[in-house]
Amino acid sequence: MTDEPTEAELNALDVTDAEAAVINSIAQPLVPGAAPDADDDLVQVDGTTDGTVYVTINRPQKKNAFDAATIAALHETFETLHGADNVRVVFVRGAGGTFSAGADLQWMADAAGWSESDNRDDAMGLARMLKALHDIPALTVALVEGSAMGGGAGIVAACDMAVAVEGTRFAFSEVKLGLIPATIAPYVIDAIGARRARQLFLTANIFDADYAAHIGLIDMVLPEGSVEEFISMLTDSLTGNAPNAMGDAKRLVNDVAGHKIDGGLMDDTAKRIARARVSVEGKEGVAAFLAKRPPSWAQ
User: Fold this and answer.
1) More confident residue, 4 or 142
2) Which of 10, 60, 217, 268 is the most buried (most CB within 10 A)?
3) Structure confidence by residue, pLDDT tens digits, 227-282
4) Distance of CA 202 to CAs 96, 178, 230, 261, 294, Å?
5) In what order do the strands lie in the sheet with 169-171?
6) How far is CA 47 from CA 74, 119, 131, 141, in A?
7) For a pLDDT cut of 90, what percent of the chain falls above it?
8) Strand, helix or coil at 150?
9) Range from 47-61, 107-121, 134-148 carrying the lowest mean pLDDT
């Protein structure tokens, strides 16, 4: 665990008692639905010819805290990546050296008078955005710097993989506002387990990157200044992998996890490998291996 934050580091889910008192009448996390006119400047998307995509939350002046337009833009971005061809990896990061400070404090305060029904409808926006991220066929990787608070840490948990730079801080501080980390809970509990989630949700403690790695919220702690080296290493390692097979492998994990090993599951997995063997990628991959040449997707 780390020390308490300085005043300059306070954000929507890392607040003073006075700030909490202003907004603790809010009954649910306030999140928008995706909108067709979302502000593209709030989320930057860049891609390379080798199947690498970078999604950057772009509100550095607000430490990349969520507001209605930001959630909507992220949702649209993640939905678009469901149909992107030949994408192997999607990196998610925040601009300006901070991953995300969670929910925007001013936005939450402005919405304190909303009804429970309005809050419920808006909370579905974050739920849909996280599900869209979770369901991207490519490998999703959170590159975490500075801090990831509340919903920001939820995005980390919803990715397939996460790394954080030394000194990064995390927290699930919703209970300080009289709230609960409801929409992010399925992904956080899947990543760290129910017992750890109870501890962190109820204490609202701030913790560091080493502890995040210990509990499974992230996979690796990176030395300062080594993020680009990590990106290069990971992308290089994926060039030999068939993009469609990667998506099928990800769906396999999602569909098999938690299921009893019985005849139905055995039949389903047998059908999946049979389908893969007769696919274009399956035939090309085996032929390339036998001919001792790179497959078409690695050339």
Assistant:
1) 142
2) 217
3) 999 999 999 999 999 999 999 999 999 999 999 999 999 999 999 999 999 999 99
4) 30, 11, 34, 34, 51
5) 147-149, 169-171, 207-208
6) 16, 35, 22, 14
7) 73
8) coil
9) 107-121
Domain boundaries of the chain, sorted by first residue: 7-237, 240-298
Q: Assign 151 to helix, strand or coil.
A: helix
Close Cβ partners of 112 (under 8 Å, ≥ 6 residues apart): 22, 23, 25, 26
Look up residue 132 and give its two tokens.
Answer: 């869209």
Which two three-digit tokens encode residue 115? 């009804």
For residue 55, the Cα-to-chain-centroid distance in whole angstroms is: 11
- Who contacts 146 (Cβ-Cβ below 8 Å, separation ≥6)? 63, 94, 97, 98, 99, 165, 168, 169
Fold of 7-237: 2-enoyl-CoA Hydratase; Chain A, domain 1 (3.90.226)
Chain centroid to CA 208: how far? 18
Instruction: State the DSSP H helix or E strand holding residue 132, giving kind and residue range, or none if neither.
Output: helix 116-134
Listing DSSP states for 194-245 in one string gives HHHHHHHHHH---EEHHHHHHHTS-SEEEPTT-HHHHHHHHHHHHTTS-HHH
Whether residue 292 is predicted with pLDDT greater than 80 in this model: the reply is yes
CA angle 294, 297, 299 (to 5 degrees): 55
Q: Which residue has the higher pLDDT, 29 or 166?
A: 166
Q: For the segment 72-124, what is each residue's pLDDT rounded down to a tens digit?
A: 999 999 999 998 888 999 999 999 999 999 988 877 777 677 788 887 887 88
CATH of domain 240-298: 1.10.12.10
Contact status, residue 55 vs residue 90, Cβ threshold 8 Å? yes
- d(C-alpha 64, C-alpha 96), whole Å: 9
